[in-house]
Amino acid sequence: MKNFIWDNKYFLAPLLMFWILLGFLLLAYGYHDSFLVMNGIYFKWLDYPMLILTWLGDSFFLSALMLLLFMRKDMNMVLVAIASVIITGFIAQFLKHWVFFEWDRPLTVFEGKGMVHYVGNYILHKYSFPSGHSTTTAAAFTVIAWHIRKRKVMPFILGLLTVVVSYTRIYLGAHFPGDVLAGNLLGFIGAYFTIRYMAPVIRHYFNRISKNKRQRWERSLWFAAVIVMVIMFIHPFK
Fold first, then answer.
1. Average per-residue pLDDT in the chain?
2. Is this model's pTM higher than 0.85 or not?
3. Angle subtended at Cα 221 by Cα 220 and Cα 227, rounded to the nearest 5 degrees
4. Domain of 140?
5. Res 92 pLDDT > 60
6. How many C-beta atoms surround the C-beta of residue 78 within 10 A?
7. Which entry of 10, 38, 180, 203 is 20 to 30 Å from 162 by CA?
8. Which tens digits make up the pLDDT trace of 35-84?
9. Which of 166, 177, 163 lies closest to 134 in space, CA to CA?
10. CATH number of the domain that 98 lies in?
11. How far is the C-alpha of 186 from the C-alpha of 5, rounded, in Å?
C-alpha cells in the first residue's frame, strides 16, 4: 500500500489537500454545518458548469467515457477501471440503501430553512452517505493515474478533476462534506484492491482472447458506450 501511495503521489497531491480541508471543516463545524460553509459559497455563472461536471461521477457516463477515450490505447486499463467503478459503486450503493439508509441529504436535513443552494430541478433527498459520484470518480481516476504514474502532469490533472467532480456534489446541494470524503476514500482504497487482485486476472484472460474476437468485443463495447452517452444527453440526471 505504501508503494501504491508513493507511485500515485502526483495524483494524490490535490486530493490530500482537499481531504485535509474537508476534515478541518468537519472538525470545526460538524457534519451538517460544514456543508453550509461550503455550499454557501456559490456563483450563478458556475451553476450550469457544475451541473455538467457532476456527470463525470455517474458510473454509467464515466464507464462509457473511458471506453470512448481509452479503448484503442489501453483496453486492459479501461477494463480494470470499469471493474473498479462497478465494485466500489456497488459497495457505495449497498452502504447507502442498507447500512446508512436513514442518512438524508442536505435538502431534507435543512428542509424549509432556505439554506441550501441547489441548481434547477437537480433535487435529491435520501441516501446521502457515502457519495456515489465521489466514490466512482476516485476509483476510475486512481486506476488511470496509476497506469500513467511515471508522468507528472496528467496524474496531477486527474487528481484535480477528482477534487472538482467531488466538490460539485457539495456545490449542488447533493451531499455533505463527510459523504464526499468517505466516497473518495472508498474509491481510492477500492481501486488499490482492484489493481492488486483483479488487474492480473483481467490482463491474463483478456490477452488470451483472439484478435478477431477482441475486435468484435471492442466494437460492441464502443457501440454500447455511444448508446449510453446519447441516452444520458437526451435524459440528463434521470
1. 90
2. yes
3. 90
4. 2-234
5. yes
6. 26
7. 203
8. 999 999 999 999 999 998 998 888 888 888 888 888 778 888 899 999 99
9. 166
10. 1.20.144
11. 14
Contact between 183 and 166 under an 8 Å Cβ cutoff? The reply is: yes
Task: Give the Cα separation of 238 and 236 in Å (integer).
Answer: 6
The residue among 170, 192, 173 whose CA lies nearest residue 181 is: 170
Say if residue 146's pLDDT is above 80. Answer: yes
Note whether 138 and 4 are within 8 A (CB). no
Residue type, 221: L
- Note every long-range contact of 33-39, with CB atoms under 8 Å and residues 24 or more positions apart, other chains counting: 34/176, 34/177, 34/178, 35/106, 35/170, 35/175, 35/176, 35/177, 36/110, 36/115, 38/167, 38/170, 38/171, 38/177, 39/106, 39/116, 39/117, 39/170, 39/171, 39/173
Helices marked H in the chain — which ranges?
A: 2-7, 9-29, 33-39, 44-53, 59-70, 75-94, 106-109, 132-147, 153-171, 177-193, 199-207, 211-234
Residue keyed to cell 459559497: 41
pLDDT, tens digit, 9 for 90 and up, residues 2-19: 788 888 999 999 999 999
Instruction: List phi, psi (to 5°) of 61.
Output: -65, -45
Grid coordinates representing 27 are 472538525
Between CA 127 and CA 105 the distance in angstroms is: 7
Contacts of 1 (CB under 8 A, 6+ apart): 192
What's the DSSP call for residue 54? Answer: G
Distance CA 39, CA 66 (A): 29
